[in-house]
Amino acid sequence: MLNPTMSPRTKRKLLIIGGAEDHSDDCVILRRFVELAGDGDARILVVAAAAQRQADAGDRYRRLFRDLGAGRVSVVAIPCRGAAEDPSAAREAGAATGVFFTGGDQLRLTTLLGGTRLFAALQAAHQSGMVVAGTSAGAAAMSDTMIVEGDSDDAPKKCTVKMAPGMGFLAKVVVDQHFAQRGRIGRLLSAIAQNPSVLGLGLDEDTAVEIEPDQPLWVVGSRTATVVDGQTIAHTNTSQSKPEEALAITGVTLHVLPSGYGYHLDKREVALPDGRMP
Amino acid sequence: MLNPTMSPRTKRKLLIIGGAEDHSDDCVILRRFVELAGDGDARILVVAAAAQRQADAGDRYRRLFRDLGAGRVSVVAIPCRGAAEDPSAAREAGAATGVFFTGGDQLRLTTLLGGTRLFAALQAAHQSGMVVAGTSAGAAAMSDTMIVEGDSDDAPKKCTVKMAPGMGFLAKVVVDQHFAQRGRIGRLLSAIAQNPSVLGLGLDEDTAVEIEPDQPLWVVGSRTATVVDGQTIAHTNTSQSKPEEALAITGVTLHVLPSGYGYHLDKREVALPDGRMP
Asked: What is the per-residue pLDDT for B149?
């Protein structure tokens, strides 16, 4: 049950960003995050655990969100798992209206945060309506299973992609980021061919999807989100092939969606900007 | 009508190569070309008009084809359109069992060769059974309409891709090359969205398709051919969008096919290695 006193702007929203979002012009995506978190009433927590230099990344986003009008922004430092067990960090999460996961290395993020008190507090806060946003590595880690690494600009191979358990804010989807910019269609195809019940979501740079339970996701930003739907796959040799062999994958359905377009994750249907189906 | 005295190996075959084919190990693709041209009986003509240094490119392939056992290999130099009007070049084409178009710039190839006596002789020879092969730019120029340039590693936009009339050996297909290696799915999607009656064929490096009229094409080489079928597109905003805007393209069908897999261009159906449909 959602908290009935909760603002309509904060219905367990996710904002998943393909990396390299605009920081200097209109800041459409980051501005949207601040808005979803409550603008002047926002209490934003920045988690920079994915970043190599957490303090730098945290400070950058603190300044950005303050400049965009967020009421309060704090950065939680997580140099080690112990820091994520600190009750004060969990209390901070409990009071937040939005959390923002920075870029960096998704495996550093999940190894530091996974299974900690802070992570449990963030999950609980999200259930009560806190917006969860992540960019680049922070986007990759949103789903149940995340892509950890894999060759870009290559044909799909079984060895192209390594996966690991993600933070699980989004079920049955595998997210890939910097998608067109790093030529990652091959590794996302390889990921979904391994289990077509999972949907592939490739996010270009400066492009995000906004997701709310039981609603279509909507695309925001300057480029596109690519939905890779493997449910229509007629044949793949993924289970029999050797790691270095090029894979066969036939009958994949692809949707390329720019800003204003939507997609029903459950129904696997595109929603046009006017709300109709194509 | 095919020439009834023609070898069964030379039934108006095309060999379209995604560039960077192996020149030093097994040379699977180039060896196949020499075989299709007749091995010891082959008379191969190398057209290096696409290359910036025609003599270098021509010499390289002459040596390769000789090393692979081709009976006779000659290189036709085309420094200007006048050279392609030379009756002796046309005679050479008329006697060839295979022509090979090197890489370089597809627009240089078509501007030098298009509409010349040599080109007419090559078309006539192909009708009588001469194998036509091309790599990289030589592959791009095979179809009716060819991609001349376009951003790689970017979301599909109308300005992403510039097209021009190609050599027309292959109808109703747009070929793109160095496909996964240069992240070119966006520009191929943009090309086929402009007219989904045309099929997109993205060829990875060291990968080729072998095509014979009324037969499925077959994939050869170490990586994959990607078929982008726009006939299933449910919606696109291509005609209304501005050049720099990210495009919407929904419901595209994609097949990723490694060596041994086939595809019926006319029926738009995959053929598995054993000949069955998936």
From this structure: 86
The residue length of chain B stands at 278
pLDDT, tens digit (0-9, with 9 covering 90-100), for A223-248: 999 999 999 999 999 988 888 889 99
Residue B143 corresponds to which tokens in the numbers above? 């179809």
Domains of chain B: 14-271 (3.40.50.880)
Contact A253, B251 (CB under 8 A): yes
Distance between CA atoms of residues A130 and A2, nearest Å:
11
Q: State the Cα–Cα distance between residues A189 and B199, nearest whole angstrom.
A: 20
Does residue A258 sit at the B interface (CB-CB below 8 Å)? yes
Q: Which residue of B has its CA nearest to A235?
A: B278
Averaged pLDDT score across all residues of chain A = 93
Tell me if B94 sits within 8 A of B121, measured CB to CB. yes
Q: Which DSSP helix (H) or strand (E) runs through A200? A: strand A199-203
How confident is the model at residue B241, as a pLDDT? Answer: 87
Copy the structure tokens of residue A83.
């820091």
HSE, CB side, 13 Å, CA atoms: give it for residue A206. 14
Q: Phi and psi at residue A195, in whole multiples of 5°?
A: -160, 90
* Closest alpha carbon within chain A to B221: A246
Please tell me the distance from the alpha carbon of residue B178 to that of residue A21, in angstroms, as a whole number.
28
pTM here? 0.90
* Length of chain A (residues): 278
In degrees and rounded to multiples of 5, residue B10 shows phi and psi of -125, 60
Contact criterion met (CB below 8 Å) for B172 and B265? yes
CB contact under 8 A, A155 and B249: no
CA–CA distance, B90 with B104 (Å, rounded to integer): 22
Interface residue A231 vs chain B (CB under 8 A): no
State how far the Cα of A88 lies from the Cα of A118, in Å rounded to an integer.
9
Helix axes B87-95, B117-127, angle to 10 degrees: 10
- Among B50, B185, B54, residue whose Cα is nearest residue B112: B50
Taking the Cβ of residue A259 and every Cβ of chain B, the question of whether any pair is shorter than 8 Å is answered with: yes
pLDDT in tens, chain B (278 residues): 333 344 444 579 999 999 999 999 999 999 999 999 999 999 999 999 999 999 999 999 999 999 999 999 999 999 999 999 999 999 999 999 999 999 999 999 999 999 999 999 999 999 999 999 999 999 999 999 999 988 888 888 877 789 999 999 999 999 999 999 999 999 999 999 999 999 999 999 999 999 999 999 999 999 999 999 999 999 999 988 888 889 999 999 999 999 999 999 999 999 999 888 88
- Please give the C-alpha separations between residue B213 and each of A46, B94, B158, in angstroms, as whole numbers: 60, 21, 32
Residues of chain B positioned with their CB less than 8 A from the CB of A251: 253-255, 270, 278
Look at the block and give the residue holding tokens 């994939």: B219
> Does B183 reach chain A within 8 Å, measured CB to CB?
yes
- Decide: B31 and B68 in contact? Cβ < 8 Å: yes
d(C-alpha A74, C-alpha B276), whole Å: 60
Q: Is the pLDDT of residue A168 over 80?
A: yes
| Cα–Cα distance measured from residue A90 to residue A147, given in angstroms and rounded to the nearest whole number | 27
| The one-letter amino acid at B81 | R
